[in-house]
Design goal:
Largest sheet: 8 strands, mixed
CATH class of the largest domain: Alpha Beta
Number of helices: 18
Strand order of the largest sheet: 5-4-3-6-2-1-7-8
Number of strands: 25
Number of domains: 4
Strand content: 15-25%
CATH superfamily of the largest domain: Histidine kinase-like ATPase, C-terminal domain
Length: about 650
Amino acid sequence: MPKINVLSKQLAELIAAGEVVERPASVIKELLENSIDAGADTVTVEIKNGGIAYMRITDNGCGISREDIRNAFVSHATSKIAEADDLNSIMTLGFRGEALASISAVARVEVMTATPDEEIGTRYVIESGEEILCDDAGCPKGTTIIVRDLFYKTPARMKFLKKDVTEANAVAAVVDRIALSHPEVSVRFIREGKQVLITSGRGDLLTCIREVFGREFAGSLIPASAEANGVKISGFVSKPAASRPNRNMQFFFINNRLIKTGTGSAALSEAYKNSIMVGKFPSCVLNISLDPSLVDVNVHPAKTEVRFSDERMIFNAVYYACKNALASGDTPKQVTEIKKDFYKAPEKPADQLVMTQREKPSSDFWQHIPKKQPETPTETKKPAFEVKPVAAAPTVRASSPDAKPVLRVETTEDILLNSPSKKEAVAEDKVSVSVAEITAVPEEKTAAPDVEIVSVTETKTEAFSEEDFLLIGEAFKTYIICEYKGKMVFIDKHAAHERIIYEKLKKESGERTPQLLLIPVTVTLSKEEYSAMLENLELVNGSGFDVEDFGGGCVIVRECPMELSADDVEDVICEIAGRFAEKKQDVAFEKLDWIFHSVACRSAIKAGNFTSRLEMERFAKQLLSMPDIRYCPHGRPVLIEMTKRELEKNFGRV
């Protein structure tokens, strides 16, 4: 049997540090909580190189006396609790007594502190758990802790850290949450010598939200409050119109302590049921106040996981708080009233004014469509659009005997619903035809010119039989019904259109011409989403977007793919950023594929949208000529076939 060894103090502290100190953000969280527990109302956080090389936290709290400074860095030494019963009534953020000991075990730590009763402060230096210096120092009342060279003696831990910008964004996320949990504390955050956040510390939560996430996010919130069975809910929830594609902007606090709670998220989703679309989630900043004996915060060293004595009580409190907020605060958007004298009509004598009375609109629009007037033989009317015959062969001419005509092949873009067709080339040496037209060139043509194919879709096509096709109509404004080669075909227009756009985006990846947005779109993200988006910015910009870092957890979008509407840009960016933050280990190909999925889904025609008969006919013909497109990017079938025999069998004819 192997011999049992008693670990040394330094090795035991290194093991304990692995639970408390995972990255610079863990250090900032522990030290910020200590500053707030010390009664500070002003805290300054400064980092360099993502916090790996340098972290400094300064507060104006009660400070640490000289006789206690050494004990503060001993494992399980704390001023928050003294006996076992104190664990049942914890109101402080820290209580385990492991933070300072764990931090000093893996970094170089310097402390300058002074209490209100001391005339001279104390400077204490400790490295790798070993005391280096303890001397007098001139410093203001409060505590300043400087942490340098995190994991400098544990290179195995160092290699698991991310890039400096990623670690800095993780620190920023911690600072944001601490600021939201204590709006009465003024929090200042300095990153690489630049101040990126400062809160007023006035105690107004909405003001703090505006300072952390910006005016747009704060403007989408409505107040929420409720109190029942000793549980008090206070904070803000988002309006249904401002819902997001993920839960990354949901913040719950228990007695001003940030936590992760599935109960709160489930209650929030249930309250918004039938108020937002499926797949959308509300945002919130909610603080749950209750008796500390009803919640156990001593579950994990990070103190973000808690247990409730009664989950149903918490669920009901959050649910009714959100329901009351929606009932009172979710009002329809109001149109801004225009001043009466803003637009003045030209002054004219009364006898020169011609009064006309507008005909009262009928409830039945179709009964009042003007009848089509017969066209005279001499009248020439240009059609709204021209449908090219598929079987017609193009006429290719060259401007000179040596010139080579360029045959440009149209991709599937021309058949996309609600998308304008490309203009045909009018130059004599260029002509635009479809893929089907190329295959229809007569074989008896002897002197065929040289052809240079500029672009061609990789999707397989087959000859379409016009005489075997019959468009029947559309059901529920969702399914196109047609007859083709003796079968009834039901086409899901959204799924089919989504797959066509998806294949088009994949084919033209890296060679697309995006559309320039007239008004750039600013998107507010959580710090996790923001960091993930910046890490994959090159990948996103290579897929048809032009996204830039706007600072403060925001990105600005200046260009987007041609298929995407400007109204959908914000939701798509949120979806992509949320996916990046959730699936951090995905390879670049999978991330790019998800971007195409998201853009295609948003760009495709929606179920329930009106589609003209000509659009349905062109779309069905094109889809039936593509044997490869049979499933949407999510795996749902794009069409279902039913043979004549199957139909007759259901009616009892066979």
